[in-house]
Every structure is written in structure tokens, then in C-alpha cells.
Design goal:
- With 286 residues, the protein is an alpha/beta fold.
- The protein has 2 domains: 2-173, Rossmann fold (3-Layer(aba) Sandwich); 186-274, 2-Layer Sandwich (Pantoate--beta-alanine Ligase, Chain: A,domain 2).
- Helix content is 38%, strand content 21%.
- The protein has 10 helices and 9 strands.
- The strands form 2 sheets. A 6-stranded parallel sheet has the order 1-4-3-2-5-6, sandwiched between helices. A 3-stranded antiparallel sheet has the order 7-8-9.
- Helix 6 (124-139) crosses helix 7 and helix 9 packs antiparallel against helix 10.
- The termini are far apart.
- The relative contact order is 0.13.
- Bound molecules: adenosine monophosphate (AMP).
- Adenosine monophosphate is lined by residues 29-30, 36-37, 39-40, 146-147, 149-150, 175-176, 183-186.
- The site of adenosine monophosphate (AMP) has 16 residues, from helix 2 and strand 5.
């Protein structure tokens, strides 16, 4: 496995592989790898000849007061995990090479970025789509892999890839969870032991929402209220949002029908965690 920190070297390597007729799979990450990231690599490995993973803590997707400075980093450990999962090249650019003095081009997906995390983290998705567009330009992947864990991000990137005619196929893979249901996340390492226990309430509350919908509940407000009640029982929690939206435009729904995304962001102590499920309602209960 190679580790490449130079943008033009990375682009040259891709050119060589493409000339040999090899397909390129791409897994963009911010590092501090866990099984969620590795599941993307393992699938990429099955579909494509060369798997490239970027590790880049992208400064422009963090707002003021967010955790850019303390975001966990461990390149050595990441190299071991990525290597054993089958990554061929780690692309590890520096912020000063990605955003040199005078940098002034940004990609913004309108509408889809207004609700959910876009509402509580203004500018976040502009940072994400900008870096992913740049990475696509450098790595020129055939297929890029994203996690359902960041549901809004995946939907926005799919739209960007299509709108900008990138030619990159976007695949979204299921959320990998700990045994108690907590979605794996690099940010889970911020949690104290008791916060870690409390954090499992996020997925438990989503499972409860699913149960209510399966039993016939269609009133989005009532389902949201049920999730809220469960989460509020944990004194370490502070709810950022709990929303039920359609999966096309990400707009709040009043009545649950068709396919909906149930998404939430909750602070456990000082750590902001997100999770979601997609629920399909096939036939309405009378
Ligand atoms: P990050 O390093 O947090 O920016 O995540 C990089 C990629 O891994 C994104 O596409 C995430 O959605 C995906 N990812 C993060 N956590 C998980 C998880 N628990 N299960 C599946 N994919 C994940």
C-alpha cells in the first residue's frame, strides 16, 4: 500500500492505473478509521481494481467552535487498518495544498442542504461538496463509496455528482453499528464511559420509531415525540434535531408515507452524534 501526500503525484498514479485499463474505487474519509470505513473499502475491493482512500480532515466543513482542532488523528493506525482491508493507495493531502492562498472556488448544492444538519451546521455541506468535488477531480474514480450513517451527505453528494456530470457512480452502504446499536463514528472516542452507555439511546429510539410505524402510526409529530421522550430520559443528552423527511427533497413530512428518512442529531455531553434510519411504508394501515 502506498501513502501519497502530493496532489500531482496522486493524479499521475491514477493516470497510470487508468492507462492499464484498471477501474478505480474511491473511499473519502477524515481518518481515525473504524469498521464503518472499512466496510466501504471491502465493498470497493469487490467492485473495482484499485482502491484509493483519502484521509483528509477538511477544515472548510467545520464551523467556528466545532471540533476541527481536536478531531482525532492517527495515521499510523489508519495505515494498518486500511492496508489490512485492502486499500491500495492512501491519499493524504495537506490543507495548504488543497486550499492554497488565493483559493476561491466552492461547490454548493441548493435546497437539499437547507434542512437537518444543514440547518444546525451552516456552511458544513458547502465544505463537504467542495472537497469531494476536488477529490473527484484528482482521483477520477469510477465508483465512490459513502456511508448511510451520513444520510444527508450521501444524498447531497449523489446530486452533486449528477448535476456536475462527474461521471462518478455513487454507492451508499449500510451503517455499521456497535453491538448495542450505536453507529460507529470517529467521534465516539470523545465519549466518557457513562456517555458511551447513554449514546445507545439514539439507535434504540429509532428502533422504537420503526416499531410505532410498523404498528400503524403515521403521524410524524407523534413519532418524533416518542423519540424525544426516550432521548430526554438520558440526562447527558441535548437534542439538536429529530426530523422525519422525504428522501428526495429532505423536507419535513406531516404524514408518514412512501419512503422517509428519520434522522437525528443529539449532543451526548459535548459530543454531537448523528444517526438515522430509512423507513419504507408499503401499505397504509386503516
Ligand atoms: P468520515 O471519516 O466520518 O468523514 O466518514 C467517511 C465515510 O465513512 C463517509 O462516507 C461516512 O458516511 C462513512 N461512515 C462513517 N461511519 C460509518 C458507519 N458507522 N457505517 C458506515 N459508513 C460510515
Amino acid at each position: 500500500m502506498k501513502v501519497v501526500d502530493n496532489i500531482s503525484r496522486m493524479a499521475t498514479l491514477v493516470k497510470i492505473h487508468k492507462k492499464e485499463g484498471k477501474s478505480v474505487g474511491f473511499v473519502p474519509t477524515m481518518g481515525y478509521l473504524h469498521e464503518g470505513h472499512l466496510s466501504l473499502v471491502k465493498t470497493a475491493k469487490k467492485h473495482t481494481d484499485v482502491v484509493i482512500m483519502s484521509i483528509f480532515v477538511n477544515p472548510i466543513q467545520f464551523g467556528p467552535g466545532e471540533d476541527l482542532a481536536k478531531y482525532p488523528r492517527d495515521l499510523k493506525h489508519d495505515e494498518e487498518l486500511a492496508g489490512s482491508a485492502g486499500v491500495d493507495i492512501i491519499f493524504y493531502p495537506s490543507a495548504k495544498d488543497m486550499y492554497p492562498p488565493g483559493y476561491c472556488t466552492y461547490v454548493n448544492v441548493e435546497g437539499l442542504t437547507d434542512n437537518l444538519c444543514g440547518r444546525s451546521r451552516p456552511g458544513h455541506f458547502r465544505g463537504v461538496t467542495t472537497v469531494v468535488a476536488k477529490l473527484f477531480g484528482i482521483v477520477k474514480p469510477d465508483i465512490a463509496y459513502f456511508g448511510q450513517k451520513d444520510a444527508q451527505q450521501a444524498i447531497i453528494i449523489k446530486k452533486m455528482a449528477e448535476d456536475l456530470n462527474t461521471g462518478v457512480e455513487i454507492k451508499v452502504l449500510p451503517t455499521v453499528r456497535e453491538v448495542d446499536g450505536l453507529a460507529m463514528s470517529s467521534r465516539n472516542m470523545y465519549l466518557s464511559a457513562s456517555e458511551r452507555e447513554d449514546a445507545s439511546i439514539l439507535y434504540q429510539s429509532l428502533e422504537q420509531a420503526e416499531y410505532l410505524i410498523d404498528k400503524g402510526e403515521r403521524d410524524a409529530k407523534k413519532v418524533i415525540k416518542a423519540i424525544e421522550t426516550m432521548i430526554k430520559e438520558k440526562t447527558s443528552s441535548k437534542i439538536d434535531y429529530i426530523s422525519i423527511v422525504d428522501t428526495k427533497e429532505l423536507k419535513d413530512v406531516d404524514t408518514i408515507s412512501g419512503e422517509v428518512l428519520i434522522a437525528l442529531a443529539v449532543f451526548i455531553g459535548k459530543t454531537r452524534l448523528i444517526d438515522n434510519i430509512i423507513k419504507k411504508v408499503t401499505a397504509d394501515v386503516k
